[in-house]
């Protein structure tokens, strides 16, 4: 960590004011295990104040947010995208230290955050309803209205990016927001919120309540005065927040985990496919809901592909985010321990670690590093093929033909993303249609983050869509007005 790094407020943002909480939470740097910062620990009463502030701002009882036209919101969001870019270095430094991810990835995340504000800034005044042909003596129109107070509970793996995709879309549509960032990493979010306030975002439009999930998160999800809930995190917590929100019939968008397959056929361009397969699993040390965590490879090329990947995995270097190696640490000791238990069980079940990366000699012993690894010889139906490991671990499955590839691709309860690598156009489309998932990439994986591309899951990966215009629409609801004349 650089000595010049300026830390954001250890407070909550409520109604345009930074307020102290009774206690704070210590945040550690994943690369060293050392104390990095303290953040506010919001309780139910802080969440109550934040929801009330958001409600008043939405209703026009405080500040000017409710009076802003779509064009004014658009202009502010576009200006804020520029502000993020001006502070790019500092935000990336915070993201890198706080999450442990390599600096290049942290920089990419801040650039993506700015792009969300630019995309939704550009879209804010282009979102409209329809007129509907009905009986001849009627005129019917639909209005796309904001929900009101949007509760947003976000995780620690991509704080700045997820802040961008949720907050920019919700504000663009005219909502107000109460955001609960994750206790493990939220410094970039706090700095972004500080910048938003200092660049004249009206009071109460954005409120931030840092804290633990079981305290601030639970209080927010169950609050009777939220109008929409967007949650990104684990399937288990997703169930809990959805149940809490259901008590008040609050609509929910859930972006949960994944066990996304990369299908590599014998006719694929392997020079393009294999580096993408590696990137798809080591990005953010595999702590990515859309990680390509299963490799499905056709039998004819399986041995040579595994041999090639072994070389690539053996060459991967793990180090601190600042060192900007291939792979950083996991977020905390708990995640590391959880993964190591699963890896030990896999080895005990005869699964082979075909290759492992290396830890840089300079890496701190206190860092939560798990080496990137490639697992082969996996018994059918084993848990490492079905469960999200949330680490830099790629599991290999071999298929004979297209039908088996499709069956394996669809053999988990998840359905977030899939990659298909083949030159056969018919097969590309047959598989793209047949795979149960929210996104399918053909001869690429991830489309460079795809701010503009609707994203979300099927089954245990969640429901609802974020990103792109679809994400913006999901922060609105339709009102139908029928006029008899
Ligand atoms: P992880 O296990 O990877 O930390 P979670 O799904 O638990 O993932 O966390 C995602 C977000 O949900 C975080 O902001 C966390 O604080 C929050 N959270 C955790 N538990 C709850 C809960 N019971 N109610 C609401 N939010 C929660």
Automatic annotation (TrEMBL):
Keywords: Oxidoreductase. Gene3D superfamilies: Aldehyde Dehydrogenase, Chain A, domain 1, Aldehyde Dehydrogenase, Chain A, domain 2. It comes from the Bacteria. CDD domains: ALDH_AAS00426. It holds the Pfam family Aldedh. PANTHER family: ALDEHYDE DEHYDROGENASE-RELATED. This is Aldehyde dehydrogenase. The lineage of its organism: Bacteria, Pseudomonadati, Pseudomonadota, Gammaproteobacteria, Oceanospirillales.
């Amino acid at each position: 960590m650089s000595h010049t790094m300026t830390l954001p407020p250890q407070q909550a943002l409520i109604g345009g004011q930074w307020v102290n909480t009774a206690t704070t939470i210590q945040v550690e740097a994943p690369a060293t295990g050392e104390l990095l910062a303290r953040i506010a620990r919001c309780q139910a009463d802080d969440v109550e104040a934040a929801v009330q502030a958001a409600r008043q701002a939405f209703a026009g009882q405080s500040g000017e947010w409710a009076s802003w036209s779509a064009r004014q919101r658009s202009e502010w969001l576009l200006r804020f995208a520029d502000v993020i870019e001006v502070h790019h270095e500092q935000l990336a430094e915070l993201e890198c230290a706080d999450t442990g991810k390599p600096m290049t990835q942290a920089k990419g995340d801040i650039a993506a955050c700015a792009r969300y504000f630019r995309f939704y800034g550009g879209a804010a005044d282009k979102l409209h309803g329809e007129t509907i042909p009905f009986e001849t003596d009627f005129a019917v129109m639909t209005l796309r209205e904001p929900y009101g107070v949007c509760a947003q509970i976000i995780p620690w793996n991509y704080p700045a990016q997820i802040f961008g995709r949720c907050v920019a879309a919700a504000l663009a549509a005219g909502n107000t927001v109460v955001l609960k960032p994750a206790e493990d990493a939220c410094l970039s979010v706090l700095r972004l919120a500080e910048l938003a306030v200092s660049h004249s975002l009206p009071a109460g439009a954005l409120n931030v309540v840092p804290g633990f999930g079981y305290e601030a998160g639970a209080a927010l999800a169950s609050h009777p005065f939220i109008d929409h809930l967007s949650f990104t995190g684990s399937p288990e917590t997703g169930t809990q927040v959805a149940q809490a929100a259901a008590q008040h019939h609050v609509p929910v968008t859930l972006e949960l985990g994944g066990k996304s397959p990369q299908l590599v056929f014998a006719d694929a361009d392997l020079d393009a496919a294999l580096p993408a397969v590696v990137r798809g699993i080591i990005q953010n040390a595999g702590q990515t809901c859309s990680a390509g965590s299963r490799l499905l490879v056709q039998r004819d090329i399986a041995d040579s592909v595994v041999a090639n990947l072994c070389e690539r995995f053996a060459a991967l270097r793990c180090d601190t985010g600042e060192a900007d190696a291939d792979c950083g640490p996991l977020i905390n000791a708990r995640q590391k321990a959880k993964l190591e238990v699963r890896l030990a069980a896999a080895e005990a079940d005869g699964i082979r670690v075909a290759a492992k990366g290396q830890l840089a000699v300079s890496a701190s012993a206190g860092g939560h590093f798990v080496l990137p690894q490639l697992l082969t010889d996996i018994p059918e139906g084993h848990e490492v093929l079905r469960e999200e490991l949330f680490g830099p671990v790629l599991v290999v499955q071999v298929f004979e033909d297209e039908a088996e590839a499709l069956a394996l691709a669809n053999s988990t309860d998840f359905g977030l993303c899939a990659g298909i690598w083949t030159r056969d156009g018919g097969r590309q489309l047959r598989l793209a249609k047949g795979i149960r998932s929210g996104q399918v990439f053909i001869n690429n994986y991830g489309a460079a983050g795809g701010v503009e591309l609707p994203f979300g899951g099927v089954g245990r990966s969640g429901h609802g869509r974020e990103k792109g215009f679809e994400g913006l629409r999901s922060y609105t609801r339709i009102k139908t007005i029928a006029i008899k004349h």
